[in-house]
Amino acid sequence: MDDSPSLDRVARIQADWRRERPDVDVTPQGVIGRLHRLAGRLTEELSLVYRRYGLSEGEFDVLCALRRAGDPFERAPGDLAAHTMVTTGAMTKRIDRLERGGLVTRRRSGDDQRGRIVALTQPGRELIDKAFTDHMRNEHRLLSLLTPAETETLEALLTAWISHVEDPRAADGT
């Protein structure tokens, strides 16, 4: 193994694979491996703020989706799933916990008595306003490790890449 201090963990893994499997191009690991490691580290850093407010990442996301909805700060559970990174299957569990904490309420939809509406309570709004302010401060701190130009370039690259991954037709021009 190449223990060179100038190589990061991903570069060392690539060097190992190049030695053991020179027949396989491991170049993608340079990007994918680093993104994977960075995503894990970013999640750890972001979760520090969520935990400070007694929230999980998914609960924070649900409260943010309700707050972004604007007055009266409510959405149907299906809409919440569409406006968050939380799956519909996990949504009920998160709403249950937020409701027990007094941060949201549930009521029947006026249009469809079988449907439900989830609404942010006043304590929920106060909590998410504080948590979101801290969250944005934390994200600014994390991005301050890059120059403004690097941040702008990275955002453009990630925007292009995710559009191709999420919509393969965009990649082939169809």
Q: Gist?
A:
The protein is mainly alpha-helical and 174 residues long. The chain has eight helices and three strands, in the order αααβααββααα.
Task: Tell me what the structure shows.
The chain is mainly alpha-helical and 174 residues long. The protein has a domain of 115 residues: Winged helix-like DNA-binding domain superfamily/Winged helix DNA-binding domain (Arc Repressor Mutant, subunit A). The chain contains eight helices and three strands, in the order αααβααββααα. A three-stranded antiparallel β-sheet has the order 1-3-2. The chain is elongated and about 65 Å long.
Core attributes:
174 residues, mainly alpha, Arc Repressor Mutant, subunit A, 3-stranded antiparallel beta sheet
Question: What's the layout of helices and strands?
Answer:
Layout: H1 9-20, H2 28-52, H3 57-68, E1 74-75, H4 77-82, H5 88-100, E2 104-108, E3 116-120, H6 122-143, H7 148-166, H8 168-172
Antiparallel strand pairs: 1-3, 2-3
Helix pairs in contact: 2-6, 3-6
